[in-house]
Amino acid sequence: MINLIALLCLFPTIFFSILNLIDHRYVLSAINFSNSICSFTVLLLQYYGKHNIAKATLLTSNSVFFFAGALLYKNGGEYFLLCTLIVSMLMYDNRKIHIVLCITVAFLILLLYLLPDILPLSQQVPRSRSVFNIINALAFMVVAVNFFLDIIYKNMKKIEQQRLNLESMNRDKEKIFSIIAHDIKSPFANLEALVFMFRNQMLDSTASQEYIQQIYQQITQQNQALDDLLQWGSSSMQGMNTKASPQLIKPMIQQIIKVFNENTQSKQLKININIPNNTQIIANRDHTIIILRNLISNAIKFSYVNGNINIYTSMDETYTHIHIQDEGIGINPSKSAALFNEIQQKSFGTEDEPGSGVGLVLCKDLIERNKGVVNIQSTPNKGSVFTVGLPSCPSHKPQTNVEVPTCC
Description:
GO molecular function: phosphorelay sensor kinase activity
Radius of gyration: 36 Å
Strand content: 5-15%
Catalytic activity: ATP + protein L-histidine = ADP + protein N-phospho-L-histidine
Number of strands: 7
Mean pLDDT: 79
EC number: 2.7.13.3
CATH superfamily of the largest domain: Histidine kinase-like ATPase, C-terminal domain
Keywords: Kinase, Membrane, Phosphoprotein, Transferase, Transmembrane, Transmembrane helix
Transmembrane segments: 26-45, 99-119, 131-153
Shape: elongated
């Protein structure tokens, strides 16, 4: 706003300085030129970050020069003094400053009407120019007030949006703490009981092997849940950068599947990967691994024993779509729409595998950060197909004839 006012003062005062010089009003020309110099000085102060000095210089110089022009030449400068008062009240939020400036401007205007004319009528500016200055002053008041009102309304909208975001973050925080309290604390309590029995040799060799397997599975699941929670917290940080680069899909999926070997073997699942070796996407590698790991983990968790999991890709003009299809319990259509939008309650797989409820919301957040899309097609008791679309690598053309398995 200071820059705008300085520019609005700079060019007109230069123009009127030349015009008054031609009309032989040398003092008024000097006043206009001095005002131009002050406006230029204000812009320099703004450029070097001295904003408070710039504000004071702008208001003081304008008040002095407008008063001098109105006193000597009766050019309607008192209306510009009112403009200065309005601008000062918009620039400063200190009421004491408002009162001082109001008294000062009122005193200056009072002097203009009480003091006799200093110069003869013939040397004063034409009435038409006084009317022109008055109209410009009134127009400036309207523009200045509306400019600040626009800023205020925008700030109010930003504050309201920040309030809504804060409420959403608080709700997520409460849900995360609820998950930590129930879904993570309880399994650790079970682990404590198992370790206690081992320490006191309360289990025979056969039972020990079974409990060791349970401990291993619980530790693996809790590690994943904790990782999801940590990633969720870090992904919610404002200003988090997503560095995207070309990524081969197949090696990432093969790496993730190795992590779940124990789970797939225990449920006798067969994972079929039908992805060309050179298929690439443009995304953040760490984010992509988290997304695929969560979706593959869900496919394993909710698949029936001896089932198949098919992982394949398709392409269009914008995205490379990664499809993860399972033969499991499926999802009710009324619930599938909310899966990616809100933290879910604790769920259990076909073999009572627990979940954190955070994974899919985290996935959607990371997918959107990588300019991707996500979709789900599911049939209860038959299976689901989770589809993640991430930007295609420019060197790859869309596949026109892709064989896409249908949901079981």
